[in-house]
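We modelled the chain as a single entity of 152 amino acids. Its sequence is:
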Amino acid sequence: MLLDPGLLAKLGLLPDAAAPATFAVGLSEFKKLVSHDLEHLLNTKRHASRTELAGFRQAERSLTAYGIEDFSAKYFENVLDVADICRAIAHTVQTFEPRLQQVQVRAEQVTKTVGGLGLTIVGLLVAPGVREPIRFDAVFDIITKKYAISAH
């Protein structure tokens, strides 16, 4: 199947730097590419807050708004803070990852015991000839302040 590998592959930032802009990949490889791009998106801090960009409709989709908000002031044991984090991540993914639609983010209790926050990101993977549900497991490590993501 002929699929768009994503921005990072096009820029040569994936292991196979000689890959053309569009190439044939299998569905499992395509999911890995989306997972990789999603991990980079969530590990990028946005430069401007939503309130700073209020009133500038196009700015919300620009590089200035790319990435997620800084959640360092949030407390992972607080249900309201975790709900805010989930909403913000869902909004960011919906805005900057066009291959995913109907994105929902849920917090998972499992990884809280190891010093992080576990999230499940579900949505619909959409590409030419592809329209299928997908799930990503994301773990935020509070020490490294980085997300690690895997697709299922």
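As a brief sanity check on the tokenised model: The helical segments are 7-10, 27-42, 50-53, 79-96. Residues 8 and 14 are 6 Å apart (CA to CA).
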